[in-house]
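Reading a protein record of the kind used here takes little practice once its layout is understood. The fold follows as a row of integers, each naming the local backbone shape at the matching residue. With these conventions in mind, the following record can be read line by line:

_____
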Amino acid sequence: MTEPSLATPEVFNDPPLTVTPANVAPRVWKFWGTALWGLLIFIAMFVGQVGAILLLVALRGLPFDMASIQLVGREPQALALSVIMGLPTTLAMVWLAIRIKKASFVDYLALHWPSWKQLLFGAVGLIVIVLAWEVVSRSLGREATPGFMTDLLKSGRDKGAALLLLIAFSVAAPMSEEVLARGFLFRGWSASFLRVPGAIILSSLVWTAVHLQYDMYFLAEVFSIGVWFGYMRHRANSLWLTIALHALNNMTAVVLTMWLGS
């Protein structure tokens, strides 16, 4: 029996060893990066919305002054277009922020489809919160919907802008706001020192601040709904879930106010 030659050791017949790299932390903007990019995203949303109004002012041959902007901006059709045009500018800025980190757009924002059980659970929780605020409103003798929103929606219905308003408030607004709050802000802040609870609270506060046209009572309701959305975003790891819940909430309010509200 001959021993194996040193020139052709048996180990050479085995496949080469592969080194598995350690788990690499995902590329995520942390607290300050998320905050600064969040501000830029909000500015982009605002620019898109104002840009739609300015375009309408130009198309009508009106002077570019505050009087013309306010005149056009109060029209239901113009307001609906403004909300819709805020969506592409929001998505573009979010895409840029994630692209710079060389991260996956889908994974960064948790654009994963929820299960039917998660959707049902989230909807039931939302209904409970809304009904609780409805009971409180009635006990205090308050209106369940802000008066200016009621006037806007009914005026839009009477002027043939019902469908456009429905798309704006039930599709465009939920997507823009959820991508900002429960998408980008929550993702970055939950990976920072705030962790998940702090990210839920702070992103809900930012989302509430977007609705400063409401009084303190309605802002408290918005915040409570935002906390529920944040919890469901974390529980299901799905932004599509909160977008669907947000759309359900807005669509119900729009339909009831336009056609069934007194």
